[in-house]
């Protein structure tokens, strides 16, 4: 029997995607047969951001990875549902008027799951094999393909080599820049573009909301308050102790432009958030008044890529498909990438196999992940336009305008339809297709 040399996997980035891959590889026992190293630019794991929602499609993967119990302990209580039944997922309202009106109540086949990002990271870390090595303060500068593998150069002066490089380094991915330069010489299309949207994210103590309005619906469920070029998303996290709140404000004329920031913007001195929502219904305004020190994010996306992987370099998560957050799916897609990729490695490296053909693995990964990731990038963009009353049918609507009930019902149906793939589909079919071509 041929003994394979231990292949060296380098994962760049320990965000949700990099950690999900570390867990998936651990659960498949690949920590014992491969040399796996995670290189992270920061000095420690930093839970950037606030709430993360996970929908049934990604939850199915987390369950398969054995994380259900640990994550459930950290997610707010959600209704248990019998097969065939549905529970309330989100309430959408037209709220840019004094008396808001319902748009649609989207129902899900299971209770929604909302987490603090730090909780997800902690669970992922707890389920990562101790054989996987983490290296902090390692910011990748460049890579070169050599006859001995891929040579990695870090800003801290270290040079290391791997056989398979996974870029899980987020929306401003260095690996993507180098990958695209290698593939087609076009680095410009790697540069994230601004969607014209800024998001103000904060956590509000549920107790504070209760004091103002003990019946506030966001204490119990997901609320989306919609208006022209603005919307607010609110939902309970951490066993209902906090309300995750995100206000989105969009200038559609700025979509596709470039900004110099790398994501979070700290300077809020010019921003008068309450004024932006003056005239909105009370339930929206009362939360806005409780927002203190939000983090401000410029929502950027990356042009969809023709490939997510090539021979021995793989892009995963935001590095492959940086998307707007209007379907709460960026982290979920990173988890899907990780799960599919880890299973392909496991199959290629399984017992009795005597080859390690990275091209076959990356071709199979491209086959299923590139079309699906790109589909989600577009789906999130369309969904954001619906929340902002910016669909073609509503172009002429101004803030606070009356919209006839039949038009709101059409909008509601398209919002509902925009969500359906997150609970009507599973990644299993795609994984089987990918495994079949391996
Ligand atoms: C307002 C908002 C709300 C969101 N809500 C949701 C939600 O509800 N559900 C959901 O699924 N998603 C949501 N997302 C999206 C989600 O946060 C991202 O898609 C997800 O975190 C991407 O994970 P990632 O691992 O690909 O990248 P990141 O989490 O960005 O991780 C990248 C890591 O790589 C490191 N790194 C970067 N460059 C280098 C380098 N050169 N060398 C070494 N390390 C490097 C970084 O320090 C970081 O740790 C939201 C996003 C926003 C902005």
From TrEMBL:
It comes from Hypholoma sublateritium (strain FD-334 SS-4). Keywords: FAD, Flavoprotein, Oxidoreductase. This is FAD-binding domain-containing protein. Pfam families: FAD_binding_3. The keyword Flavoprotein applies. Residues 10-379 form the FAD-binding domain. One of its GO terms (molecular function) is oxidoreductase activity. InterPro entries: FAD-bd, FAD/NAD-bd_sf, FAD_monoxygenase. PANTHER family: FAD-BINDING DOMAIN-CONTAINING PROTEIN-RELATED, HYDROXYLASE, PUTATIVE (AFU_ORTHOLOGUE AFUA_3G01460)-RELATED. One of its GO terms (biological process) is secondary metabolite biosynthetic process.
